[in-house]
Write a structure and sequence with these properties.
By secondary structure, this protein is of the alpha/beta class. It has 2 domains: about 150 residues, Conserved hypothetical protein from pyrococcus furiosus pfu- 392566-001, ParB domain, CATH 3.90.1530; about 180 residues, 3-Layer(aba) Sandwich (Rossmann fold). Helices cover about 40% and strands about 20% of the residues. The protein is elongated, with a radius of gyration of 29 Å.
Length: about 400
């Protein structure tokens, strides 16, 4: 029989000197004075988490800040780890008061106990089962343990793994990633902190070994720059500011007679003209992608993106009855419609390169740090959609 919840989790007060800090806790606790002043003003919003014996599980900074503020007693959440390791059926665990970092701390504390319980259970089965059956069962113990802990804590296993990845990074490189744990705890949004961690790591890798543009010359260049927004970077990839984009040596890989298809957002439409000029091209017209559903937006909710068509010299362009509107379904973030690539292939002959590509394409040269993000599918259907377009006769695009 599972123990009652009251035996698993108790909210109480404990004398601050009774709380024991294990060896694995960090020594550099950062600026405690600000935290101590906040606690003195508004109180301790999140109790520290301890075992019944007073061993600290989570909340070392809060504990030391309370000590600095002169407290002798402190609110605590008491968790019996041995009971918790067996408590997978308890769906009403008081998880609402636990921060993501505390959930990770509990997971780390419970996991070795549950593993030991699992080994003991396997040992008991060894007396009753064929050895091959026991060996087969032992292979699934780690996954079962993590799933059981996730169920007990009332959080998805993926959420715990992501929160722990953020904390691992902060422990390994506190100056670079330490603030992510504070943001994660403050907002309670694990996915956002994990996504930011991935972006920062990608940016760090790119800065360490910046990739070089492919050698040309190319008659057709498609570019979808990672525009940076003033509101911050909540995007799942590293971004670039306008000056960085303008400084790219695109002119060096372009043929003397070339076409540029430059994707831009509503927010960056004006500065995209500066990019076109910096890359050595002249603006000619604008293609607008009208999506089948709305996205987000500060003033109006976005349902369009734009692609500038610009030229250098006198490139060959296969005129047809193509319009400046492209109606196509919205897919994953930043993924452009296959109908666009079919349009480019029908109108713009010559060697093709896609800058910041996220999908490999036959006959194209790709440049980007996520060239296999999306599967290569759907192009045939897109070509069929544009089959009715009359290609016309090749002629210079100079109007």
């Amino acid at each position: 029989m599972d123990p009652p919840l009251s035996q698993l989790v108790v909210n109480a007060r404990m004398h601050i000197d009774q709380i024991q800090i294990g060896y694995r806790y960090r020594k550099d606790l950062g600026d405690l004075r600000t935290l101590a002043d906040s606690i003195a003003e508004v109180g301790l919003l999140h109790p520290v988490v301890v075992t019944p014996e007073g061993r600290l599980i989570a909340g070392q900074r809060r504990l030391e800040a309370c000590r600095m503020a002169g407290w002798t007693e402190i609110p605590v959440t008491i968790v019996d780890l041995y009971q918790a390791a067996r408590g997978e059926a308890h769906e009403n665990f008081v998880r609402k008061d636990l921060l993501p970092s505390e959930i990770v701390a509990l997971k780390r504390a419970i996991e070795p106990l549950e593993r030991r319980e699992a080994r003991e259970r396997q040992g008991h089965k060894a007396d009753l089962c064929h050895p091959a059956t026991v060996a087969e069962g032992q292979g699934s113990v780690p996954g079962d343990t993590r799933d059981k802990i996730a169920r007990y804590l009332g959080v998805g296993r993926t959420t715990i793994e992501r929160a722990e990845a953020v904390i691992d990074a902060a422990e390994e490189e506190p100056e670079e990633y330490g603030y992510l744990v504070e943001q994660m705890d403050r907002s309670g949004k694990v996915a956002g902190a994990f996504r930011r961690l991935e972006v920062l790591r990608q940016a760090k890798e790119l800065n360490a070994t910046p990739p070089e543009l492919p050698t040309g010359p190319f008659q057709v260049i498609v570019a979808d720059p990672p525009w940076r927004y003033q509101s911050g970077n909540g995007l799942p990839y590293p971004t670039m500011d306008i000056e960085e984009i303008k400084a790219m040596p695109v002119a060096e890989i372009a043929d003397d007679n070339a076409i540029l298809w430059l994707w831009t957002t509503n927010a960056h439409l004006r500065v995209a003209f500066d990019v076109v000029e910096a890359w050595g091209f002249e603006y000619r017209t604008l293609l607008t992608w009208v999506k089948d559903r709305m996205g987000t937006g500060e003033w109006l909710r976005g349902q369009t993106e734009h692609c500038m068509l610009a030229i250098r010299g006198k490139p060959v362009f296969l005129h047809g009855n193509h319009a400046t509107i492209l109606e196509a379904a919205r897919r994953e973030h930043s993924r452009k419609p296959e109908e666009f690539y079919a349009l480019v292939e029908q109108t713009s002959p010559g060697g093709k390169v896609e800058l910041f590509c996220r999908q490999e394409r036959a006959g194209w040269v790709g440049f980007g740090n996520q060239p296999m993000m999306f599967p290569n599918e759907g192009l045939n259907a897109a070509r069929m959609k544009f089959a009715i377009s009359s290609p016309g006769v090749p002629e210079p695009l100079n109007d």
